[in-house]
Each structure stands twice: as structure tokens, then as C-alpha cells.
Amino acid sequence: MQPDGQPHLLVRAGSPDEAGDEAQWNFHEIGPGRATLVYRRMDLPPGLLASFIWGTGSNEEMRLAVRSHGERLLEAASGLPRGEPRLGAAVEVAFARARERSATSPPVLENRAALLALGILLGHRRLEDFVGPILNERDWRRATPLARTTLRGREDWTKHFFVSAALTVLSAQAPSDAIGVFKEELDAGGGSGFSFGDLLADRAGTTFALLATRDDIAARALQARLAAGFRVDDFFPEAADLPEDIQAAELEARYGGVGGRLFRQYAAEVERRLWSCPAYRALAPTAER
User: Fold this and answer.
1) What is the pTM of this model?
2) Digit-coded pLDDT (tens) for 95-115
3) Beta-sheet strand order (sheet of 34-38)
4) C-alpha separations of 263 from 19, 214, 252 in Å
5) Which residues pair with residue 84 across a beta bridge?
6) Among candidates 39, 23, 43, which has minimal Cα distance to 129?
7) CA nearest neighbour of 198 among 231, 230, 170, 240
8) How far apart, in whole angstroms, are the C-alpha atoms of residue 158 and residue 164?
């Protein structure tokens, strides 16, 4: 009871084994006319989020498929070329595995698994939360050669491309708010302003995933295309000249904010470049073909 005689309640919510770990507690304060909640992100038990997304049986099928693709990438990692060719070689390895497994498994499922494995290893390791346990600490040490893979000379564009591709796969299954929260956390950790180059990398990764998983015919066609080699121009256009590090004040003052005239001009240029990539023409809006 508060000094004013009004009821007041403070509740701490958490599992019993979290006692003493203040970073894991939620605080609820209920007083006259108000309720306050302070929360912090809590690490879920391995596999729990994945089971919510895929369903218990389907989750294990997908987890094992992603594990197979991830293991193949780890086996190849130390032998992949250095520098810019590493990204294309990694994609070729992943989709060669997908093509091999598609002899007895649906091609779309295998391409999804390949994209998720690439997303975890080349994009962001927290994507593993959406699939279930895939890699242990020894595996991550084996993955060291993949850590600085570049796309047109940029490590951040590699991450944008493969995170967006993986999220496109997950968005067909995961609750949209779960994906949205994950994306917001990644964006918040970036520390830089808005970038049209990043936007192009995001759009290219999304389109690559759509191409890879549209249906079984498209899935097999991409596997065959990549068996002949990955050409970066086919999947990601030049982006170095696009404006970057645009802070909030400049975004409003110069570009008119999101939806402003100059912003829309650059956004249209991003789309024009995207649909100029040979691999994406079959998906392009009619006006872009």
C-alpha cells in the first residue's frame, strides 16, 4: 500500500532459473490510473522460436536441411578463393548442394535451406534462432574464412543481401512481427544514416530469394544457372555511386523525407538498376522489361 492509501503492486516476471539475472526480468508496476512495463530482450531456449514458426515436425525437417547446407559450406570454406570471388564461390557451393539434394527432395525446400544457411553464415548468426540449432562454437571457428566476404568490395552489402534473402524465406512462415523486430534490431545496430546502396542490396537479396523459391521449375532453373557459375552483374548491379550515410536531418531537408521528390527519384533508380540484372528480368514488372 502506498503512503496515499492507494494500492500499488510491483511484479517481477521471469522463469525460476533466471533469478539474479537482472537482464532477463520484466517489471510491471501497477498503480492508480496507470500500469508500467519495462522489458528487455530475453534469449529463448534453442529451437523454441523455430518450432513456433515452422511447427514441430516441419521445423526438424528444415533444420536438418539447413544443417546439411551449412556443413557443406563449412567443408568448402577454407578452400574458397580470397577476395571478391569468395561470395560467388560460396553461392555456387550452396546451390550445388541444393541441386544434389533436389533429386529426392523438393527443389524449393532445398533452395530455401541453401538461402538460410547462407544467411546465417554470411548475413547474421542470429538468423539461426528462426531455424533451430545449426552450428556450434567449433563450427563458427571453421566459418572464419567466410567472415569478411565482400560484395562489390563491401562486407556490409554481403550482409544486407543475404539477411534480406533469408528474411524473404522466413516471411512465408514466420509471424510478421517477429521478422520485423529482428530487422529493427539489425537496423538499430548499424549506427549509420540511410543508404540507397544498402537499399539496393536489400532489394537484390529479396529478389534473389523470390527467384530461387518461386516454384519448383524456377528453383531448378536457378540451380542450373548457378552450376554454370555466379556472375555478380547478373544478381547485383553497380551501387557505389548511390548516396549513403544520409542522416535524418539531411533526409528531410534535401530529399523531402521518405516519399519526397528526390527520395523517389533515387528509389526509382534503385528499382531500375535492380531490374536491369539479367537474372531478374523474368520477375520484372512489365514496364521494366
Assistant:
1) 0.79
2) 999 999 999 999 999 999 999
3) 9-13, 26-31, 34-38
4) 49, 30, 9
5) none
6) 43
7) 240
8) 10
